[in-house]
Specification:
Helix content: 10-25%
Keywords: Leucine-rich repeat, Repeat
Pfam families: LRR_14, LRR_8
CATH superfamily of the largest domain: Ribonuclease Inhibitor
InterPro entries: Leu-rich_rpt (IPR001611), Leu-rich_rpt_typical-subtyp (IPR003591), LRR_dom_sf (IPR032675), LRR_domain-containing (IPR050216), LRR_R13L4/SHOC2-like (IPR055414)
Oligomer: single chain
Order of helices and strands: HEEHEEEEEEEEEEEEHHH
Protein name: Leucine rich repeat containing 28
Largest sheet: 10 strands, parallel
Number of strands: 14
CATH class of the largest domain: Alpha Beta
Shape: elongated
Radius of gyration: 26 Å
CATH topology of the largest domain: Leucine-rich repeat, LRR (right-handed beta-alpha superhelix)
Distance between the termini: 71 Å
Strand order of the largest sheet: 1-2-3-5-7-8-9-10-11-12
Number of domains: 2
Structural class: alpha/beta
């Protein structure tokens, strides 16, 4: 196995390969052959998935200066070392399925980084320097032990896909709503009890998944026209026990779907989810309201909370 590994690296060095595949090699240490002499100056993509690596060498950037993609999925790495910050050309870093407990602040120096995958580790926090990754488009930190998100995450202006499923989050920072490029946000399987009211206000955000947050009883009204996953939220209730929401104006009566009350109870105050329903109801009736007097009559019959909603 060792001689085969040496031959593979030797050929890659002599022929100036840009890609090197060292997956499934049962490696416990980073191969010294990669670090000899000048290293592999032409190498751009290094694949070392499913080995038994526990750390990375300090001179990694010196020997592999042009590395663009580094795949270390399914190893036993515990700490992302400071040396990682010197890979200034790195665009993709995959450290999923390791034993990571610490990500060093130097990761914020990877200014070209576009995709960062840290899923299935033991992380309890991420350094605020993650916010310095201005080119970051994908961040997957699912299945960790995170209680909060990085303080400066909203400064990742290029972030499009954020996955934080199966952590221990109990709230979402409001500044997350400021991410201008965010298209998909997945927070399933956490401990969320509420969401920021501004979440979904951005036109770019189209997909939001909050499934299996059992304490989550309501959704912000801005999410009413987004693709939403919210199964397993709120206390389970029988649909037959729920009094369907409806609104009547003259001979017209509109019943809202039973799912509208599937999270929350009829004794709750006006929740964001009910606000969402009322907005939808208003737009439905607006097409039938021909005169100003009928509109005034409709508003007079509506609950005070709805009037506040429609006049703001």
């Amino acid at each position: 196995m060792a001689s085969e590994l040496c031959k593979t690296i030797s050929v890659a060095t002599l022929e100036k390969h840009k890609n090197l595949f060292l997956n499934y090699r049962n490696l416990h240490h980073f191969p010294l052959e990669l670090l000899k002499d000048e290293g592999l100056q032409y190498l751009e993509r290094l694949y070392m998935k499913r080995n038994s690596l526990t750390t990375l060498p300090e001179n990694l950037a010196q020997k592999l200066p042009n590395l663009v993609e580094l795949y270390l999925h399914s190893n036993n790495i515990v700490v992302v070392p400071e040396a990682i910050g010197s890979l200034v050309k790195l665009q993709c870093l995959d450290l999923s399925d390791n034993a990571l407990e610490i990500v060093c602040p130097e990761i914020g120096r990877l200014r070209a980084l576009r995709h960062l995958r840290l899923a299935n580790n033991q992380l309890q926090f991420l350094p605020p320097e993650v916010g310095d990754l201005k080119e970051l488009q994908t961040l997957d930190i699912s299945t960790n032990r995170l209680l909060t998100l990085p303080e400066r995450l909203h400064m990742c202006l290029s972030l499009q896909y954020l996955t934080v499923d199966r952590n221990r989050l109990w709230y979402v920072p409001r500044h997350l709503c400021q991410l201008p490029s965010l298209n998909e946000l997945s927070m399933a399987g956490n401990r969320l009890a509420f969401l920021p009211l501004d979440l979904g206000r951005s036109r770019e955000l189209q997909y939001v998944y909050v499934d299996n947050n059992i304490n989550l009883k309501g959704l912000p009204s801005y999410l009413y026209n987004k693709v939403i996953g919210c199964s397993g939220c709120g206390a389970p209730i029988q649909v037959s026990e729920v009094k369907l929401l409806s609104f009547s104006s003259g001979p017209r009566t509109v019943f809202l779907p039973a799912e509208v009350k599937a999270i929350g109870t009829e004794h709750d105050h006006v929740l964001p989810l009910q606000e969402l329903a009322m907005r939808s109801l208003y737009h439905t009736y607006h097409s039938f309201l021909k005169g100003g007097q009928l509109l005034v009559l409709w508003l007079t019959a509506a609950p005070p909370s709805v009037c506040r909603l429609l006049t703001c």
